[in-house]
Prior knowledge:
Helix content: 25-40%
Distance between the termini: 25 Å
Strand content: 15-25%
Oligomer: single chain
Number of helices: 10
Shape: globular
Amino acid sequence: xxxxxxxxxxxxxxxxxxxxxxxxxxxxxxxxxxxxxxxxxxxxxxxxxxxxxxxxxxxxxxxxxxxxxxxxxxxxxxxxxxxxxxxxxxxxxxxxxxxxxxxxxxxxxxxxxxxxxxxxxxxxxxxxxxxxxxxxxxxxxxxxxxxxxxxxxxxxxxxxxxxxxxxxxxxxxxxxxxxxxxxxxxxxxxxxxxxxxxxxxxxxxxxxxxxxxxxxxxxxxxxxxxxxxxxxxxxxxxxxxxxxxxxxxxxxxxxxxxxxxxxxxxxxxxxxxxxxxxxxxxxxxxxxxxxxxxx
Length: 295
């Protein structure tokens, strides 16, 4: 496979985003959107290569991650601005329509694009995220659960997020990131600490620094409700259900698929949590490719 092609695109005045493309340049584009504070390199090479068998795969660094502009400290932005960045990436690369795959915060950004710019999408795949909707979950027996009563984030993860991050050098930072991945990973698949340590070491080398800005946790999350638009969407959308998901545990995926209506599909990846270990990459790629082939 040819070497990936790197290009910077301008998302806003003074804000440049690092992008990388791989695969057949004549194939349909599949844009990968990572989660909060996550570089595009958070999408494992093996997964990108598997998807590039049928698509031109694009991944990119959000603002304040990787090699993109770190700007929040001087010019704070809203989370909805990160959804505008998705469109900026497509425009900057000259892409009219694309398949979107979003994980965690990336899944929320994909929902914003799904709602606000559906004409730019061929399909969407949503992983490890929650619905940007106030519509209650309707159970098989007709009873309802309000969105605010759906299960919350695992308390151990909340405690980890609350811990202050101190600069004690790169190896200590790698220890912290691996500890975080262990919690996100879930308990149904054996945890490979060295796999995640190597992943994070590559991200640090790519970024050229080992600190984290914290920008996406500080940014304004208001204005993200898309209840009516999500219910009306006709973009083919796949929701990935992960039984060991500790951030948006079941029935969040089922709720999301329900919110999206008749054009949404739900596929479970056995053992998956809020991470991308080797064991889930092949079934995840197969699910995404099967979905995009029908779009």
